[in-house]
Amino acid sequence: MAVKFGTFTLALACALSSGLAAAQETTPEPPVAHEDRLNAILWQMSSAEYEGAARTAYLAARLALDDALKDKTRTAAPEQTGDVSKLPPAIIMDIDETVLDNGPVQVHMLLDAKTRPGELMSHWFDRAVAKPTPGAVEFIQYAQSKGVMIFFISNRNADKEAATRRNLEAVGVKLPADIDTVLLEKERPEWQRDKGLRRAEVVKTHRVLMLVGDDFGDFVSAWNKPSPERRAVAAEHSARWGRDWIMLPNPMYGSWENAAINFNFRATPAERLRIKRDTLKAFDSGE
Fold this sequence. Notes:
It contains eleven helices and seven strands. It is α/β, with parallel strands linked by helices. The chain folds into two domains: 36-253, Rossmann fold (3-Layer(aba) Sandwich), CATH 3.40.50; 254-287, no CATH class. The strands form two sheets. The chain has a five-stranded parallel β-sheet with strand order 5-4-1-6-7, with helices on both faces. Strands 2-3 form a two-stranded antiparallel sheet. α2 (38-46) packs across α3 (48-70), α2 packs antiparallel against α4 and α3 packs parallel to α6.
């Protein structure tokens, strides 16, 4: 199947118009966006606000890196303990929506109701044409100029490693030839969705100065907890945010949404919408 990724604004507008018309014909509920990711994708792909947020995150990362290099006892990885002062420095980064922007394929998944999302993502990864997230490559190059090794821990499947490497190199990321720094899901049998074991592998040889990602699972192994517990864990680590941990915005998808629907992956789109609404109703508005 040939997939085209390009200008999307008109297509999104048409999809929204037809979706709302269909929703009005089939349900008495007030019209809600045909696909509740539409605004999220539109914001991430077209807004100056997203550009500013991403660049702000990477500026914070650059400033934090300078401080981290001065303190040889400092580590950002929860899996790292003991004396780390003699280990060479490293940063662990996620890839998707952290270094590479997959907005175009998210648009295609929004508009294509026939093709399975996994097939679209597979084709997109194979093409290796994703553009960089604003500020990402500049930050990586700055860190590497300081002698910092960059490890990429991603939940792309291991069979996409060659394509992933091509894409990273195409946007200006230099990958070392003598060490594997692209650690993907199922690259080893025990490397499943949780990234903790892969972080644990990195800390054996390097002092981790910083974690950079767009999902809670890029920082701790609490991504599969209910939303209130996730928030509590994030609060427990409040001193790390913006210092050891740098979060990129991604409203399009992520473990946050899975937690919001109580990990009920078999729920229909309508059921998911109801669960999300009920979640919001659970919060006291004070009225």
